[in-house]
Amino acid sequence: MKLSVIGTGKMGGAIVKGLLDHHILAARNITGTDASADARRAFLALAADGQLGWADSAAAAVNNAGVVLIAVKPQNMGEVLPQLAAAAGDTLFISIAAGITLARLSAALGARRPIFRVMPNTPLMVGEGVTAGAGNEHVTAAHHDILRKIFGVTGQVFTVSEPQLDAVTALSGSGPAFFALLADWFAKAADREGLPLALALPMALQTMRGTAALLTVSGMTPEQLIAQVSSKGGTTVAGLEVMRNSDLAEVLTATVSAAATRSRALAKA
Description:
By secondary structure, the protein is α/β, with parallel strands linked by helices. It folds into 2 domains: 3-161, Rossmann fold (3-Layer(aba) Sandwich); 173-268, ProC C-terminal domain-like fold (Orthogonal Bundle). 52% of the residues lie in helices and 13% in strands. It has helices at 10-21, 37-44, 58-61, 77-84, 102-109, 141-151, 165-173, 175-192, 197-218, 222-229, 235-244, 248-268, and strands at residues 3-6, 30-33, 53-54, 67-70, 92-95, 115-120, 129-135, 155-159. Helix 7 crosses helix 12 and helix 8 (175-192) packs across helix 9. It is elongated, with a radius of gyration of 21 Å. The mean pLDDT is 95.
């Protein structure tokens, strides 16, 4: 499989790094292109042997590519997409540009192309990402295998329908910012109770990470874990009573709803 990466910034570079580190693809089978000289240097530095390929334009990058990963910013898609139409007819396109619909991608790339619209999140840069992909009617089981192979090295991969991508964007795409804010608030609350922020923040982060790992490995539901941690008359119950008697659930629901609504609006823009 020959992969061309259109846009070798942080996300595109992280995906390529994962492929190289896990020996999914050899450097000689990966070609990148980007308008930024800094992005070019960072991309080529990912392979010590210097075998990563480079193209001076998106049009040149797709020559002989079996898979094209489009990792440019949404506002740059209008310039880039026409350059990709010259790719071979069976080329698989994977776009991570937020808000760019399958219909728009098909209109620019060709109506019979296999295309995935994908929403990854930034934790993929440390191998802990969530990637959700929606394919058009021309993607096959083999194409789904390719999607999982490319993004599986950066975290977990989920298949969704295109309408579900707005909720995905709100939950896992924007989610790192929401969870980071919660961690910040919890740490600062502990600081006010006498635990210095320099200790409270790493403890909060590890607690979030450990809780996620415990739920994942054990198979417990959140409700089951809550029950396991809670003791009658104990500290956890005291804190849970405050959370449950507040409007926190409504606030979090509104947060996800606002992000999903904005995602739908951007797709229509």
